[in-house]
Design a protein that fits this description.
Layout lengths: L18 H19 L9 E4 L5 E4 L2 H7 L5 H16 L4 H20 L4 H23 L1 E2 L5 H12 L8 H15 E4 L2 E4 L1 H4 E7 L7 E3 L2 E3 L11 E3 L3 E4 L19 H23 L5 E4 L5 H10 L2 E3 L4 H11 L3 E2 L16 E7 L2 E7 L7 E7 L2 H23 L2 E4 L3 H14 L7 H11 L1 H9 L4 H13 L8 E3 L6 E3 H4 L2 E3 H19 L4 E3 L12 E3 L12
Parallel strand pairs: 6-16, 10-11, 10-13, 11-12
Antiparallel strand pairs: 1-2, 3-17, 4-5, 7-16, 8-15, 9-14, 14-15, 17-20, 18-19, 21-22
C-alpha cells in the first residue's frame, strides 16, 4: 500500500485559491463512495480485505470495509469516520451514508466551478436537510404496531435481505426480536435497550447455522476451577464477586525478616486463616455457585469443595454484569459485606458443557433475564464473523423499531419521494440558492440509481419511470421504488421492504452535514515539517493531496 504524491507548497509560494482544496476534498469523498457503491442492495458484491497480519475479511458491510482501508487524505478520513458514527448511532445504513455523502459532494462541484461561493451552497444544503427531515416525518413515515410480530419481522428481513445471512433471514429475525425483547428495560415511559452490553454474541465453529439460538440466560467460555466440583446444578444460588479469593500480596515490594523457623509457619498460618475467614463468610450464605472476576487460590478451592460450592474464576467484567442481570444477583466487592439480597436465585440451571474441545458454562432457564447470549454456529470462523456482522445490523434495526416505531419504504422510494418534494419546494425559492437546493434533490437519487446499477438493470429508463411515478401526486405513489433483485419498479409496501425512520433520518443528517463540513474547508495546513522545508514555516497542501489509498487487489 503506497500513498500518492503530496505536493507541498511553502508559505513563500504564491497561494492558489481555495477551489483546488475543495476539488481535492470532493475527489477524495467520491473515491471513498466508489469503493462501497457496489455493496448496496440485495445484489451487492462482497469485498475481500487483507489486513497487515495476513488475515482475510469478506464482507459487504460498509463500515467493516472502510475500517480496513488505509487512506492519506484528511477528507477521506472524515468520510470513513461518518460510517463509524452511523454504525454507533443506529447500527445500519453505513453503506448508504457514504454513497449519499459522496454524491452530495459530487453535485456541489458544478457550483464551485461557476464561482458560486461555498457559503451559498452550504446555506441551500442546510435548508434542504431541514425540509427533508420534515417531509420524512410528516409525509413518508408510517407508524407500526410493535405487537404485530409479522410487521416487525418484515422490517428486519428487508435489512437482512441484502446481506450474506439472507438465506437464513427467518432465523436471524427471530434471534434479533428475541434478544431485543429480552434486554429491554422499561422505567416509566422510557425504554433502555442496551444490546451492545447485554446481548453478547458467542461464535462457536462447527454445527449448522440453523443451530444458532438465543439463550434465556448467559454462557461464557469457562470451566469450574476444581475437577471435583459439581458441573450441573438446578436452581442454583449464585454469588458474584469482584475480589481476590487468595492471599493478598503487598502492593509494593515487601520484606519480611524471619528470625526463627517458627516464624515462617506463623506467616503461612496467617495466610491460611485469612483465606479460611473469607471462605467462611461466603459459605455462610450457602451459595451453590461462586463466580469471581479475580483468582481463587488452591486453598480456597479446597474449602469450597468441602462445603459443596462450585467456583468459577477470572470472569470478564462484562460477562459478570450479564450474569448479574440474568439471575438477579448483585456483584459484591468485599466478602464481609455480603447480604442475602446479593444472592441471585433467578436462574433455573447451571451446567458446564463441552462443545468441540472447549468447556462452556451455561446459566440458563432464567425467570426474567434482562441479558442474553446469542449462540452462533457455522462452518468456519470467516462465515461466523460475517454472520455476526449481519446479525448486529438486524439487532440494531429491531432496537430502533422498539425505541421509535416509525417506518419509511426502502428500495429508493423514500429518496425519490423526498427528491420530488424538494424540487417542488425549490420552485418557490428566490435567487441562486434554488440551484444547489435542487442539486440536493438530484443527489438523493443516487440511492435508487445505485440499486438499479447493482442488479444490472437499464438505469436511465428505470429512474425516469420512477421519477414520473412519484410526480403523479394524485395516485399516492409514495411507496414505489426499485426492486433490487430485478431492477423493475415495485410497490415497497407489497414487497414488505421497510426501513426504520431513525436510520433514514440519521443517514440524511450525517451525509449532508459531512458535505457541508468538507465544503467549508478552503485550505489544508500541515503542522508537521517536511524535509527541505525546515526554514520555511508550516507546509501548506493546496488540494493536490494524494488520492485515498485502497487495498491492493
Amino acid at each position: 500500500m503506497s500513498g500518492g504524491p503530496i505536493m507541498v507548497l511553502s508559505q513563500n509560494t504564491k497561494r492558489d485559491s481555495g477551489k483546488n482544496v475543495q476539488q481535492g476534498n470532493i475527489n477524495a469523498g467520491k473515491a471513498i463512495g466508489d469503493v462501497v457503491r457496489t455493496c448496496l442492495g440485495p445484489r451487492a458484491m462482497l469485498k475481500m480485505l487483507m489486513d497487515p497480519m495476513g488475515g482475510i475479511v469478506m464482507t459487504n458491510d460498509g463500515n467493516a470495509i472502510l475500517r480496513e482501508i488505509t487512506v492519506q487524505h484528511p477528507a477521506a478520513k472524515t468520510m470513513i469516520e461518518i460510517a463509524r458514527t452511523q454504525d454507533e448511532e443506529v447500527g445500519d445504513g453505513t453503506t448508504s451514508v457514504i454513497v449519499l455523502a459522496a454524491e452530495m459532494l459530487g453535485v456541489s462541484h458544478q457550483f464551485l466551478e461557476e464561482k458560486m461561493h461555498p457559503t451559498v451552497v452550504i446555506q441551500a444544503y442546510r435548508q434542504a436537510l431541514e425540509d427533508a427531515a420534515v417531509i420524512l416525518k410528516d409525509t413518508v413515515a408510517t407508524k407500526i404496531d410493535l405487537e404485530d410480530a409479522s410487521a416487525v419481522r418484515k422490517v428486519i428481513q428487508s435489512c437482512v435481505g441484502t446481506k450474506f445471512i439472507a438465506k437464513w433471514s427467518d432465523l436471524a429475525c427471530d434471534i434479533a426480536m428475541d434478544a431485543v425483547k429480552t434486554v429491554t428495560m422499561t422505567s416509566g415511559d422510557k425504554k433502555e435497550i442496551d444490546i451492545k452490553r447485554y446481548a453478547k454474541v458467542e461464535k462457536i465453529p462447527g454445527g449448522m447455522i440453523e443451530d444458532s439460538t438465543v439463550l434465556k440466560g448467559v454462557m461464557f467460555n469457562k470451566d469450574v476451577t476444581h475437577p471435583k466440583m459439581k458441573r450441573r446444578i438446578e436452581n442454583p444460588r449464585i454469588l458474584l464477586l469482584d475480589c481476590n479469593l487468595e492471599y493478598k500480596k503487598g502492593e509494593s515490594q515487601t520484606n519480611i525478616e524471619i528470625m526463627k523457623e517458627d516464624d515462617f509457619s506463623k506467616i503461612l498460618e496467617q495466610e491460611e486463616a485469612y483465606i479460611k475467614k473469607i471462605c467462611d463468610e461466603i459459605t455462610a450464605f450457602k451459595p451453590d455457585l461462586v463466580i469471581t472476576e479475580k483468582g481463587v487460590s488452591d486453598l480456597a478451592q479446597h474449602f469450597f469443595n468441602k462445603a459443596g460450592v462450585t467456583a468459577v474464576r477470572r470472569l470478564r467484567k462484562s460477562d459478570n454484569l450479564r450474569v448479574a442481570r440474568a439471575c438477579g444477583a448483585t456483584i459484591v466487592n468485599r466478602t464481609d459485606e455480603i447480604t442475602e439480597e446479593d444472592i441471585g436465585t433467578g436462574a433455573g440451571l447451571f451446567e458446564v458443557r463441552k462443545i468441540g474441545d472447549e468447556y462452556f458454562t451455561f446459566i440458563e432457564q432464567c425467570k426474567d433475564p434482562k441479558a442474553c447470549t446469542i449462540l452462533l454456529r457455522g462452518a468456519s470462523k470467516d462465515i461466523l464473523n460475517e454472520v455476526e456482522r449481519n446479525l448486529q445490523d438486524a439487532l440494531n434495526v429491531a432496537r430502533n423499531l422498539y425505541v421509535e416505531p416509525s417506518l419509511v419504504p426502502g428500495g429508493g422510494a423514500t429518496e425519490m419521494e423526498v427528491a420530488h418534494r424538494l424540487r417542488e419546494k425549490a420552485k418557490t425559492l428566490k435567487g441562486v440558492v434554488q440551484w444547489p437546493y435542487k442539486a440536493v434533490a438530484s443527489g438523493l437519487e443516487v440511492i435508487p440509481r445505485t440499486l438499479a446499477q447493482n442488479c444490472g438493470a437499464n438505469t436511465i429508463r428505470a429512474l425516469t419511470a420512477l421519477r414520473a411515478k412519484h410526480a403523479k401526486e394524485e395516485e399516492k405513489n409514495v411507496n414505489w421504488g426499485i426492486n433490487g433483485e430485478t431492477g423493475e419498479l415495485a410497490d415497497m409496501s407489497e414487497l414488505g421492504i421497510w426501513e426504520p425512520l431513525a436510520v433514514k433520518l440519521q443517514v440524511y443528517k450525517t451525509a449532508i452535514e459531512t458535505a457541508i463540513l468538507l465544503l467549508r474547508i478552503d485550505d489544508i495546513v500541515s503542522g508537521s515539517k517536511k524535509k527541505g522545508d525546515m526554514n520555511q514555516g508550516p507546509a501548506v497542501d493546496h488540494g493536490a493531496a494524494p488520492p485515498p489509498e485502497m487495498p491492493e487487489m
